């Protein structure tokens, strides 16, 4: 009977039900979009770090993110690292901002990424249209993501442009490698990257350190720190967290996204609370009758919570349909949203909690009912 009463109370006034569902729907969609942007941004920031095959990262002091490595390391650091017990390989990476001159005029910033996948360090992923790294290794060849073709003022494979101090030719395309800074990643062999940005032949942004199978990562890290006076030694997790902190929180972007999600929850909670309170107030005589017939306060509270639960389930279902549509439409944009099973489950739990909290105002109203009021009507 609890669900039956809750269902009838909920659907008795269709207009009020519609207002409730719109409030929940608005809250779910806003929170899903904000958190989807947060997850999407996080993945873009850490994609290259996550894909890199190394146990430790050697960076210049002060390097705050993958894009902020500079070109301060030299071959001396590599030789010292290779001489460290437990180290199997030390793979260089060059990462540097550069100017991309558009063929039709104007320019934009790109992130030049110099890597030699043959070394097993950082291997570009998501190849599209039959592209391979062998094509990129051809003279002047570079690899870009197809979502940035318009931004770079090129149409596809074979087009040329000016990057930094030299000419480049699009020889490969990827699908799904986005940049949080909106400066497209341009992958190329490490020697070509150094040449384009005018760096010395041994200039390096990062060294990826691979350890021997039996090596203790903390012991090797401590040894490397004592040997490298001009560099930092970070684990992949530390460098990942540092990059996220730099781009999401020191810039304020992450705070804005999380703040927007909390605002959506607040608006949804207020709308649902107001609607449940009004519904309870309109049915106060019926609830008083139930009390006069011997129904306990707990029973009536369960009816109100049942209304809140039904509202949550229906609103969540409608909201997720819209949220998933937005996620699908964003998949080819420079800033795609991400929806994971974990996020979907979290949103459902948050919706139930939001509606349960909203029911408190109605429960407080019912708690004050005097059963004798039914006899005064």
In words, what does this structure look like?
By secondary structure, the chain is of the alpha+beta class. Helices cover 52% and strands 17% of the residues. It has helices at 2-12, 14-51, 75-82, 133-136, 149-152, 190-196, 217-227, 236-249, 253-282, 284-292, 297-329, 341-367, and strands at 56-60, 87-101, 107-114, 127-128, 141-145, 160-163, 166-174, 185-188, 206-211, 231-235. A hairpin with a 2-residue loop joins strand 6 and strand 7.
Write down the domain tally. Answer: 2
The number of helical runs is: 12
Count of distinct strands: 10
Tell me, rounded to a whole number, the average pLDDT.
84
N/C terminus separation = 25 Å
Poorly predicted segments: none
Query: Quick one: overall form?
Result: elongated
Percentage beta strand:
15-25%
Radius of gyration in whole Å, from Cα?
A: 29 Å
How would you characterize the largest beta sheet?
10 strands, mixed
Structural class: alpha+beta
């Amino acid at each position: 009977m609890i669900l039956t009463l809750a269902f009838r109370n909920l659907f008795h006034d269709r207009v009020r039900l519609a207002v409730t569902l719109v409030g929940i729907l608005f809250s779910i969609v806003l929170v899903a979009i904000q958190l989807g942007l947060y997850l999407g941004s996080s993945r873009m920031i850490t994609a290259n770090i996550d894909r890199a095959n190394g146990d430790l990262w050697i960076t210049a002091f002060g390097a705050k993110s993958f894009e902020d490595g500079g070109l301060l390391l030299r071959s001396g650091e590599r030789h010292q690292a290779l001489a460290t017990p437990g180290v199997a390989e030390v793979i260089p990476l060059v990462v540097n901002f550069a100017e991309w001159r558009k063929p039709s005029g104007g320019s934009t910033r790109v992130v030049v990424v110099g890597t030699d996948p043959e070394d097993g360090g950082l291997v570009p992923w998501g190849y599209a249209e039959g592209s391979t790294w062998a094509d990129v290794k051809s003279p002047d060849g570079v690899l870009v993501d197809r979502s940035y073709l318009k931004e770079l003022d090129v149409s596809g494979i074979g087009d040329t442009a000016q990057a930094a101090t030299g000419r480049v030719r699009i020889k490969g395309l990827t699908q799904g490698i986005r940049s949080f800074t909106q400066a497209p990643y341009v992958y190329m062999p490490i020697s070509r990257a150094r040449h384009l940005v005018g760096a010395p032949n041994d200039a390096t942004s990062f060294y990826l350190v691979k350890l021997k199978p039996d090596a203790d990562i903390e012991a090797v890290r401590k040894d490397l720190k004592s040997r490298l006076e001009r560099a930092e030694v970070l684990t992949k997790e530390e460098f990942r967290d540092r990059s996220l902190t730099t781009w999401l929180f020191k810039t304020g972007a992450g705070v804005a996204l999380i703040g927007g999600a909390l605002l959506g929850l607040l608006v949804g909670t207020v709308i649902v609370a107001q609607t449940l309170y009004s519904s309870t107030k309109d049915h106060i005589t019926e609830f008083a009758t139930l009390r006069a017939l011997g129904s306990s306060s707990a029973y009536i509270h369960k009816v109100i919570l049942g209304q809140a639960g039904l509202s949550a389930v229906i609103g969540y279902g409608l909201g997720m349909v819209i949220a998933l549509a937005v996620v699908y439409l964003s998949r080819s944009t420079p800033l795609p949203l991400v929806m994971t099973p974990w996020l979907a489950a979290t949103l459902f739990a948050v919706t139930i909690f939001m509606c349960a909290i909203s029911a408190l105002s109605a429960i407080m109203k019912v708690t004050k009912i005097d059963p004798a009021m039914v006899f005064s009507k």
